[in-house]
Specification:
Layout: E1 2-6, H1 11-22, E2 26-31, E3 42-45, H2 55-58, E4 63-66, H3 81-102, E5 107-110
Parallel strand pairs: 1-2, 1-4, 2-3, 4-5
Length: 123
């Protein structure tokens, strides 16, 4: 089984890659920074946006586990901050999902661990 993990150098991604490899899965990682050191069989360095070509990293992949994204609006004083946030998270995710479907990927798992409940949760 060939699994592609985006955000593989993050807290969740690095642990996931280690666990998958330990359980004999073939793992391909996509990370943003070249100094990232996730554990994976293959590592691709990509900037996520609506135009990124994922073709090379989707070859022979059965499952995509998508963990990459921006957790916070970094410049909330910018009048385009929400549009930038959506482009980084929504548009790039749709781009990856569409390319994965075209590449024959059978399962796309999208994980969001920050702000899934909004800005506040009640106790």
């Amino acid at each position: 089984m060939n699994i592609l993990v985006t955000g593989a150098s993050g807290f969740v991604g690095s642990s996931l890659c280690q666990s998958l490899i330990k359980n004999n899965y073939h793992v391909t990682a996509i990370v943003r920074a070249k100094n990232s050191k996730p554990i994976a069989s293959y590592v691709f360095f990509k900037t996520f946006d609506a135009d990124t070509d994922f073709g090379d990293s989707l070859k022979f992949v059965n499952i995509v586990i998508h963990l990459a994204g921006h957790a916070h609006i970094l410049d909330d004083k910018n009048s385009n901050a929400l549009a930038e946030y959506r482009r980084a998270n929504v548009d790039s995710t749709l781009n990856l999902a569409r390319q994965a479907a075209l590449a024959g990927v059978k399962r796309f798992i999208f994980v969001s661990s920050v702000k899934v409940n909004g800005e506040l949760t009640e106790n």
